[in-house]
Amino acid sequence: MVDMVRRSYVEKLTLTHLRYRAPWDILLSKFRRGTVTVAGDAMHVMGPFLGQGGSAAMEDAIVLARCLAQKLHQVDLSAEGRQMRITQNVIGEAIDQYVKERRIRLPKLSLQAYLLGSQLQSSSSLAKFTIVALMMIVFKDQNAHSQYFCGDLRLSVRREMECGEEEIDIVIAGGGICGLATALALHRKGIKSVVLERSETLRATGAAIGVLPNGWRALDQLGVASKLRQTALPIHRASEIWLHENKQGTTQLMDGEVRCLQRGDLVTTLAENLPHGTIRFGCQVLSVKSDPLTSYPLIQLQSGSIIKAKILIGCDGAHSAVADFLELKPPKLFSIRSVRGLTCYPSGHGLPHEFVRFRRENFLVGRIPIDHNLVYWFVSGQEGYPTDSNISKDPELIRELTLESIEAFPEEMVEMVRRSDPGKLSLTHLRYRAPWDILLGKFRKGTVTVAGDAMHVMGPFLGQGGSAALEDAIVLARCLAQKLHQVDLKAEGRHMRVTQNAIGEAMDRFVNERRMRLVKLSLQTYLIGSLHQSSSSIVKIMSIALMMILFRDPTAHTRYDCGDL
């Protein structure tokens, strides 16, 4: 380093006294007067300790331009008199929107930079200790600031949306399995909807999904089962091997078909059967609120656009903005983490059509063939994976940690993990919505409801998460279709209230039909998860006893029929 400084360009050398705008000043300051505002260092000069000064300035540019663009097309900057005042008010609203959006982001950045700077410059051990403690409390993930996305600047053609507000009859938040299946079910009933998907392409994360007989009944109703059957082998039996006890057992699988589908095959097939323009990519739902005039939902997107919907269905996963609007309790965490992956054998894997699980103490390793070349596998356990959230974004590190955790397992599984496709690896901290929360939760507010993981996220222990989401799609579309042909979604005044009441009745019927089915599924999953994660003999005995009392036939859940669409 000494030699580096010695050899540096003299004309590039600078000496700067570091400055900062205090976090509390950013939080409380008025950054707009009339049609004047600030950005960059003029707004939030900060020390270089986070390396975010320049990046934050570029974020300012994107957000400010987007906010102004949404308003400027509505006004004439050359206007005079009363129209000039209207123009000024509109510009003021745009700047206020910019300041509001940035005020959420900038105090956090400036506070983190301020604490790092204070730690560097202070000579007091007590002050340093206090600062470190504050950092650990306030910024548990100290790299979270780099994951921020300021939103899109330009409006994508494929979104087919203009700046400002848009009215859509039926909006589905989330373009995963449940969202696409719900849109397709509505389409089969002749009902148009729009799917808002936050990513820029179809999401095929999660490697694969087991579909049980009840899931195939739902896929038959959607009209896509025949095509999907061609992509996956039927699974005939299941084997359980307890390595630490040196014993094993094999059972024939339940009546009806069981197959493991690539998640990408399922999502793509559902999407291909939807009308063109149904899915709008790059549309992340930030929040939902009720229109004070009509009581219909207002959907705030990360791009700054607002959508007025007549019906909103939240299929946006475990971290659902729609579930937040419904004030549902947040999902809980199992102490178990799960790694999932796919391994391809170009010359064929030669495995039987069998679901095999290996157990050793608190670790569970399983595999199931998808076709003659591709195998889906998973590793679940409570140890071996640090809590650092950045690990889930590093496939090679996931594979390395997984290989370390399964060293004592059969070599065939170790080699399967070693040869896996890094692009399909995922590390997940398993979540669930508690059975009592499903039993007591209010899953409808006005003309808004939820389905899929947003409604009933559950652990993978029954393999019913995806199949239950497909059931939701069928039941919800059927309930809505029975009412929507009786009303006019464009109605206003008294007729609008009639329409809202009819939609509410349809959603209530959906919730009532699904509630007990989902309580049973989630309870059975919860008990199996508790048995898997607990080290307490008492908890294990109680879980087994409850399973024997409540679920004498442990595979009865697969014989459920969600009915015709």
Automatic annotation (TrEMBL):
InterPro entries: FAD-bd, FAD/NAD-bd_sf, MOase
Residues in FAD-binding domain copies: 25-73, 168-485
Stored Pfam families: FAD_binding_3
UniProtKB keywords: Monooxygenase, Oxidoreductase
GO molecular function: FAD binding; monooxygenase activity
Similarity section: Belongs to the 3-hydroxybenzoate 6-hydroxylase family.
Name of this chain's protein: FAD-binding domain-containing protein
